[in-house]
Amino acid sequence: MKPETAAKKLGVLLEATPEEFRAAPVSRATMQQLQDSPPEWLVELRKAGPHPRPVVAARLGVSVAGLRRAEMTEPMTTAEIQALLTEKPEWLVRERETHAAVMAENARIKRDRAAHA
After folding, report:
1. Whether residue 25 has a cis bond before it, omega within 30° of 0
2. DSSP code per residue over the chain
3. Domain count, the chain
């Protein structure tokens, strides 16, 4: 698979990976090895970042669209994410509420569909 795809599956930012990872396609066996026994660079990237938008959104408890609405388009480190969680800016509080409401509504719809099935 392409390095871009592998980075997405691993939850890391491609630009932050080592050059040898970006330079060549990643085989399924290599991908499995990276998941089962991650090298130090992968452990460190997952721990400290920089993180891609989906990971940032998940750690903040908002949607990717919520990040976009807040104009938070750049990758963030774990320290930056923690700072936002500590500061709790207005946009973050609002987007977390919106995300929670959407998740609750989705769960309600799922329960209703299961009850009708």
Report:
1. no
2. --HHHHHHHHTS-GGGS-HHHHHS---HHHHHHHHHS--HHHHHHHHH--B-HHHHHHHHTS-HHHHHHTT--S-B-HHHHHHHHHH--HHHHHHHHHHHHHHHHHHHHHHHHHHH-
3. 2
pLDDT mean across residues, the chain:
93
The yes-or-no verdict on residue 117 having pLDDT over 90 is: no
Q: What tens digit of pLDDT does each residue of 88-113 get? A: 999 999 999 999 999 999 999 999 99
Q: Are residues 80 and 99 in the same domain?
A: yes
Looking at the structure, tell me whether residues 74 and 110 fall in a common domain.
Answer: yes
Strand-pairing partners, residue 76, are: 51
Instruction: Give percent of the chain with pLDDT exceeding 90.
Output: 95
